[in-house]
Amino acid sequence: MRVQICAVGRMRSGPERLLTDDYLDRFGKTGRSLGLGPAAIHEVEDRKGGGMEAEAGLLSRVLPAGALVCVLDERGSVLSSPEFAAQLAGWRDAGRQDVAFVIGGADGIAPSLRAGAGFALSFGRMVWPHMLVRVMLAEQLYRAATILSGGPYHRA
Question: Is 3.40.1280.10 the CATH classification of the domain at 2-149?
Answer without folding.
Answer: yes
